[in-house]
Amino acid sequence: MPPRTRTLRAATVAAVLALGTSLLASAPQAGAAQREPVAVTDHCQGQCADILPPGENGNATLVEILGNKAFGTHPAHSDDQLDRYNGLVAGHTSLTDQKLTEFFNDASFGVAANQVESVTSPREDVTITRDKKSGVPHIKGTTRYGTEFGAGFAAGQDRLWLMDLFRHIGRGELTSFAGGALANQGLEQQFWPQAPYTEADLEAQVAWIRTTEGARGEQAMADAQAYVDGINAYRVKSKNGRYFPGEYVLTGKIDSITNIGEIQPFELTDLISIASVVGGQFGGGGGGEVQAALSLLAAQQKYGVEEGTRVWESFRQRNDPEAVLTVHDGTSFPYAGKPDQARGTALPDPGSVTPEPLIHDRTGSAGTGAKAPVKAPATLKPLQGMYDDGVIPEGSLPGTGSGAQKRGMSNALLVSGKHTASGNPIAVMGPQTGYFAPQLMMLQELQGPGISARGVSFAGVGMYIQMGRGQDYAWSATSAAQDITDTYAIELCEPDGSAPSKDSTHYRNDGACAPMEKLERTNSWKPTVADSTAKGSYRMQVWRTDHGIVTHRATVGGKPVAYTSLRTTYRHEADSIIGFQMLNDPAYVTDAASFQQAASHIDYAFNWFYADSRTAAFYNSGMNPVRAAGVDPALPVKAEKAYEWQGYDPTANTTDYTPFAEHPQSSGQDYYISWNNRQAKDYATAAFGFGAVHRGDLLDDRVAELVEDGGVTRASLTRAMAEAAVTDLRGEQLLPELLKVLRSQPVTDPALNSVVQQLDSWRAAGAQRKETSPGSHTYTHADAVRIMDAWWPKLIEAEFRPGLGDGLYTALTGSLATDESPAASHGPSGAHSGSSFQYGWWGFADKDLRQVLGQPVKGPLAKTYCGNGDLSACRDALLTTLKQAAAEPATTVYPGDDSCGAGEQWCTDAIIHRALGGITHKTIHWQNRPTYQQVVEFPAHR
Description:
Largest sheet: 10 strands, mixed
Helix content: 25-40%
Strand order of the largest sheet: 3-4-5-12-13-14-15-23-24-26
Distance between the termini: 25 Å
Number of helices: 23
């Protein structure tokens, strides 16, 4: 079916919901009647490579977990991609095309006969062949059902425990499943309110895909059922054979002696739950309008409504003319911009906003984390308490943890053939999804009727390759984060006509006083060997309305309201399966145009990139709602017909969507870069932080230079990525302006002048955070890096707080943190997570410093803040904070944590794979780089 541009109406919706449960039991199974797979030709001819650390194998038996704890041993293929990934830090400077496989896997189709490690045939119509070097499953089926069954079986082999974790996270049941550690409590409390569903809701989403997406929808659900069947087949075999993941013993699910216990069967609805976690974290966009309203109110309170709004807009930077763009040829794609005359905006009364309470009826250790260790058998003593800090440590997943914001991650560099040495496009690209053991994604190759691809899939939804390569093309994605989530203010009421309060649970809806729907999840836990958290329980509760989930309460014009969050992908968590099915189908994707059509069927907000032997291309996907004229999407809106999405039907959360042509897209541009930056001119951002300096500049500057020189190779494009991956954005982009201000007069203090010279030497050397030599664990310019890490937060506060005032400065930092260096533990995935420099005040500082220097600035800040616009006063503020920073010892700048001692700079930055199971891995050098990455250059086409 064509890309969605219109809503399905109530009659269709009602029919789908009524069919939900019965359709779950009647999935068609594609079997031997389907055509045999055609012979596959690999048109990459050895020029496709990929990498996914730490290793393919993410399952470990209890014996293997004990061995890892006692002796540091690792199960086969659980860590054999780690050294290659880490090695690129030192190896990229001398990289050639011939050396790429020293740092990447050969991503060719199939396995050479002399490289076959094992062959498994869980059914007669499918084989799973694993290679010796990396253990990646190459799944080949003679039927469609067999191919997908094999994919599920291989997922069970490599990620059974991880999939079980994530289906429970998606259902808001992590503590009941894995233990009551405070981090587990926090994780489910952040995920479940974003996608709270009843079992009937999950069943309805399966039915929706089957009944509204035509033949592809029916096939997708048949494929999903085969995948689930494969997972369950492995689940049963591993349990009976006693080679299931050891975490089931440690969390009390199975007795290690008697084998009594069960791994619960997987169901189709589990895939919806997992999809809600994956899509919500990496493919969401928008929201945060209440916090934005609070910072706008703070600006208006300081400066008055008109001037305060102008100041706020200059920080909001929705459409900054200096921002780095993926489509840089000037093509405009207007979306979600600021209206000339906003209508329907529902700003809260000052001081009236309160967050909606989530947790109720706490008992025992709920909220306290009190411990009550069980008596563990002697053999299990070494593993006691391994999940006491949570099965997924707090802040490890993007958008989680204290004060976290949703982060888009991943990067892509593509160069068109007219600028490469071979004349064929080249791509270096991949998703940045944090570092876990096992990894959230898994590598696989799928070959069967209508499917031909190799790449990665998120564990538990791996029916199709989600990013990877086909026979003569490759594709990848970065998080786009355009605005697909809005905040509505619903007027509260009481059914008996009495005066409502902020606590009322009824609201005005189409003229009636309608009840909110209460959704609840009660969880309880008790201590196990793995998690010593004492017995406890609580109840999570959210209120659902026709305009989304209640997040806050307030008054607007003195009337009590509830603020709700409504995203287009709610109740449609897995609809994107259709787009992925198309991307895996060699009969569908034959060129850049058909790739863009396939990508348009993916509902989450992603930037999609494509390369074959002829063309590099880009498409931005997402269910972008058509908003009412004059509505400001950056702020809360009244929940009235005149202001809601056009064609909105709350029954299944459908609406009118912007058409294909209005999504940013391009084919054949000289080059493309993306590091979660703005997509195109006039495509407004959904968050703060997209201004004149963005981490995308680290890629754009380097690729533009390569393109200007010409003759780009896979190695040179990989070098550009790898160099950016160890570069401090502040040192490269901001330090030149800071030095100009500092040196606008001679620095007469000898000690301070020496510090300035140190920083300048670091800048001249590339502003890198890189070891002196592999394994030294000491940065080449260690002192300059320390000074910058200590200086940045001080200089930003000294530059902006005096002019903004405490209230507005605090409100703006609530919308955008000032720093996200690798040493800052509030990064997108917490400390040791690699991804850095996405959000921060570097764009604000850049404009402000250029304004005080008298340089031209497009889209300037409404006021100049450093030194109140006086260069000498600005210089004094910077010198004062620089002196303070230089005196701050490393033990203060890097205070240490569970993994690093105080003052250990390299370790503080370093990447640590967060253990989601019982296996841990060594620490590796910091890189700001995709977790899974491809390097591709197709010399031929079908």
